[in-house]
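Components:
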Amino acid sequence: MKDMMKDNQIISLVLYAGSLILLLEWVYPLDDVTDTANMSAFYLFMVLCFILTATKLPYWIVSPIKFMGLLFVMHQLFYSGSFLSRIWINEVFTDMQMNISMMLSQNWGGLSPSFRTLLFLILLWMMSYLLYYWFAVRKKPFSFILFTFIYITVLDTFTVFNAEGAIIRAFIIGVAIMGIAHLQHLLEKEKIKMPQMSTMMKWISPLLILIGFSTVVGYAAPKYEPIWPDPVPFIQSAAEGSGIGDGPGGGVQKIGYGENDERLGGGFIQDDTTVFLAQSPKSKYWKVETKEVYTGKGWIRSNDGVFNQSNSSLRDLAQYSDLVERSEDEATVRFESPGVLNKLVYNYGADRVTSNHDGMTFEVNSFTGEVVPKSGDSTNLPKEYQLDVQRPFYPVEEMRKIDSSVEDNIGVEYLQLPESLPDRVVRLAEEIVDGEDNRYDQAKAIEQYFTNNGFRYETQDVAVPSEDEDYVDQFLFESQAGYCDNFSTSMVVMLRALDIPARWAKGFTGGERVFGEDHFEGGEPEYEVTNNNAHSWVEVYFPNLGWVPFEPTVGFNNPTNFSFGESVDDILDRESQETPETPELPEDSESDEEDDTEEEEEDNSGTVLSFSKPMQFTAIGLSVAILAVLVWLIIKKRFSLIRRWKQQKMARNHDVDTFTDGYQFILKVLAKHGLVFKEGQTLREFAIDVDRWYGHSAMSELTRYYERAIYRDEPIQDQHHEVYRLWNRLVNDLLA
Amino acid sequence: MTQQMTTQQNKVEQILDHMEQVIVGKREAIELSLVALLAEGHVLLEDVPGVGKTMLVRALAKSFNLDFRRVQFTPDLLPSDVTGVSIYNQKEMTFEFRPGPILGNIVLADEINRTSPKTQSALLESMEEKNITVDGNTMELKRPFFVMATQNPIEYEGTYPLPEAQLDRFLIKLNLGYPSTDDEIQMLDRTSREHPIDRLEAIMQQEDLIQLQEDVKTVHVSDAIKKYIVYLINATRTHPLLELGASPRASIAMMKAAKAYAYIQKRDYVLPDDIKFLTQHVLGHRIIISSEAKFEGKSATSILDDIVRKTIVPIERG
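Structure:
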């Protein structure tokens, strides 16, 4: 008996240690997701609490030590003066007093960090008790393990915390704990002494092998890409805005559209000055120009191209082949404060531009994609202009036909790369597209590479390449954090490294949808485009189609329409169903920031859906079908599924409640076979019916025993053997 | 279950078999009257003349070697004709009590509804109280004491139907009915020489019967069974076609009868099947059906059947 107690204690300690590791997984991410610092102090305090609780010393010894530990941590973190001196005590006392009065006045924001730390330490203290109870006493670790997983995955999904390691650790510890707890339950139930070490190993090694195997398989197995883009950069970009830096790199710049892209890099600060308002049926990117020469630091032009006088036609810009289907669209743009911007913004597929200004002409540069408005001799932006757009739908099937064998009928400038480009960039590009045999899939692979490999969207702390560093190389291999310029430039460079013609496009994202302020006539959606929306992306050349835009920046969605064999009308039909023409106006016309964020989210997700809908529908339909089949199977086979369990229970337990349970199980199985125990029927009558049907007497015999159990209140221990035999026979007959 | 109990139960079985020799094909009626006897209750027999009511009582009395009395209730019967009367003995100059028929063990009260309510209640009260008071002297009735009253359902002219409150005092009401063709032929065979009742021998003695009555009280009634009884009784109280449901006295009667019936079935615990079987006989005369029910052609029997069919039998402990 004493031995058993001792064994029990060892297992309890192992479980308790496991719980400490799991709790550490809870505290560990706080470093990343909150402004908590000095984490080691918390770890030490937790370990202290756990060790003390595990010693099972009386509370009047343990509690003071823990309390002193708590004070010492507080002392180290916050208070001056020597520990426990009069001044020190005074300081602590005043601090606490202040915080308690803050708390009473419900001024939660006013609580000092020291007080919040104190509360947190107390929480950890309490957790050490709670986990001791859960793990070491009750030995029911499942819910805590489950919650740990939920916590870690939620943090991973919605915060910057990367939980890859944490999940693996939690899995290993969690399964090990549950295995050991189960062993303990078995030992207790069967009243077995803890076996010898060798026997123990026989038990433990399958568990360890299983854990190791599942971990390795889980880690190495291919995983589906997420259906949604990682929400973190998106949340950040929604909260912080997006855009491109401009001008010479280094230092913090203000975001906005600029001309000079020679040196890219460095952080920027937000600027929500409205550049222009636009009315358009859909949120689409606004292009301004493209650049084609990458210097290793930024973008310049090889030549400025030719500006052709044009009255209103923009046809030179959208040189698509007939394979690209198009649909008619319109857009209106009104400039608010364009800053240095002196060119028109336009959507992909813009066909005509019209302005109310008298005498305004446009010069279109088909090489750079610029549209410069001219009023007389001077460059002058019109206040407002309309665009007729032939919205392009790029056929993926056609794009997939392009492979390395197809010759590009386009200038070599789109394959230019600087001499100084490190080889590892080229190698990486080749690695990424390994296995993809056509241009579209190669471009997609590179576009997705950043999202799938933990690249972060970052606007503040963005590296600037030093004199002998390459901008793309630094981003790909060192910082792995940046904004659109980093992503788009890197993608262009990698494409060119694979001999795929590509160029760098600049402009604005679709902007934020505005409600309640009618800047334009008509009910079409209106968008506000600010300096924060300044953006850059990638255009890839397909010889049979033309230039197709791609979006590598994490957290941004490609607004380009790809068609997967369906007709353009179908796509448009679907779109019109998704986005109602006139959305409900919110009561509050001055929608606050939060609303804006939500709108943008809807907006963007709409675009994503229109892209991946066919796949998504199949996936949803398939999972629903599989789920339905599973549920049906479970319902149909439920008795067979629980039969073994019931049999074990019946064999083990000799009490009347188990017998009742087992007997009623038979009634349920019989009901499934069409022999329903009707109201007003007695068991004996029913048993006769059953036996008549099956041509034996087992049910009546079993019922005799059951009647004695419940109507005579007779214990069934003595007859258990016979009862179990009859019951088993019936169950086997019925579920055969 | 003790060995002794099993022996007793076997003897009861023997009695039943013997009685069936006399009253051919009426096993159920014999069992029910035995139930009433063992549960210390009384039986109301409602039947046409000549189906063997007297024979049933006599067979019962002979099997237990009991003192059998018979009272023919006529309109001019006085209470003292039932209880007995004190007569002045001139020789000894004292009042001498001449006991009436009620001071026997088994009393057949024939055609009880033909006598005046006063005489009826003299009998019924003594059935309940188990004693009589004559001229200020209270006398205990004999033990065992068992009344089987008969009612003739044909002749209603000049009868005094028993009020509901009085009917409640009978544990069981039963009717014998005509025998089936085969049974009647068999009966003719048996009675062609001498009546089998004359050959009937006592299997048990009075004291044995008292012991049996005590044994019956020890039969186990589980909580589930009590629940079932109460469910049934409650159902009669709420049934829309019943004007008057069964009283709590009916619940007690049901339990007593069920114990006795279980005992006869050689069990020492009550089953829901016992309750179900007894419902008609124990509750049939304790409910009053509404005029709507009569109009619809329903009888107490069909309504009780309906109740039994719809009342859930508890199949779990407690």
